Amino acid sequence: MINPPDFELYNYLYEFCDSNYDTYDYLPLESENAAYPFVEFGDTQLTGGATKYALNGDISLTINVWCNANDRYTINKMINDIYHEAINIEETNNYRVSFDIQRSDTQVLTDTSVENTILLHGILDLHFKIL
User: Fold this and answer.
1) What pTM did the predictor assign?
2) pLDDT tens-digit readout, 89-108
3) How far apart (Å, rounded) are the C-alpha atoms in residues 6 and 2?
4) Which residue, 15, 50, 60, is CA-closest to 131?
5) How far apart are CA 72 and CA 28, in angstroms?
6) Fold of the domain built from segment(s) 5-130
7) Where are the domains of the chain?
């Protein structure tokens, strides 16, 4: 059975992040005491359709990077590393893909949602075309 293309792309980037950073497929609970910085994989979306002979369309993937507020260099480096890995993806196990640089973006926000803590929240909004 062939995996869906968004699942394969998710796994590809998850494996890259997990080999370089503490990585989660969910936002860790406070009780888990996750150390900063870490990567958290967010939402995926597969849109498009299929031709008579192939699946085509678009994949979007959101990756979050969390870091202490005093460590801007680290969050920017992590975002840059993940972004450049995404740019270089040409295929997964069963699909050829192309990074859509025009639709992809990154941002770093100040986050105060954790009591008595100031964090940096990096967001990578990545888009790919299935070829």
Assistant:
1) 0.93
2) 999 999 999 999 999 999 99
3) 12
4) 50
5) 21
6) STM4215-like (3.30.2000)
7) 5-130
